[in-house]
Amino acid sequence: MSQIYLTDKGELAYYEKKATPQFWDQHWEIEDLRKHILSCTSDGLFLPFVKKYLPQGSRILEGGCGRGNLVNALQCQGYKAIGVDFAQQTVAKANDAVPELDIREADVRNLPFKTNNFDGYISAGVIEHFWNGYDKILLEMKRVIKPGGFLFLSFPYMSPIRKLKSKIKIYESKSTIELQDETERFYQFALDKDNVIKDLRLAGFVPVQTKSFDGIKGFKDELTLFKLILQPIYDGKILNRIRPFLDVLLKPFASHCVLLVLKNE
Predict the structure, then answer these.
(1) I need a labelling partner for 256 at 20 to 30 A (CA). Which of 25, 127, 155, 224 fits?
(2) Cα–Cα separations (whole angstroms), residue 236 to 66, 230, 231, 239
């Protein structure tokens, strides 16, 4: 996957395949889907924050739910969860495999729900896939979350190591205008965290908490010299005991993603 630094946005653009519904249908194809979904009864990233800010019984939407793993985990932990995704085949297969879950086909830019319908909204790695931006997604988040409700939002971001590489001009650099003809290969952005927070504030959200994560992935992907050593650890094939320690060590400067908790004011 190639990376290009966008000089006018201060972000990275990743190019390989466009993140279409058909792409995700293929990406999420798996045998024994029911077993896979039902095995996900908890989550170490989002659920600790959900439990901190929302009581059991709260109504939560996951926008861009994929197979529905997190929807099942939320249900298992006592929440009323609904998932939506625009990958039609994935949603259909999830409904066939686990009909007891509420997973629907929908676009996060145009949600089929009433205003002020949810206590919480989870968005795990969604907003970075839209070349033309995430403004419509934020507007829909704001609309469907109740006043006083919470948004739990994660995305790849410009970590310190990525900012350093852009500053010393390691990445190929272009402007967004120069790349307009390349949108069919665009996969995702590594977004500028401060710009995203600014946009969220303008949309009516107040930041409450921030957590960077996936330090091993960020480090191995940006310093490819170490990828051969770190990939098996990241995949859980070797040295599982040191993985948490290594991730904690690397994430302050090399995290691949950041999670924001925000309140709808």
Answers:
(1) 25
(2) 22, 10, 9, 7
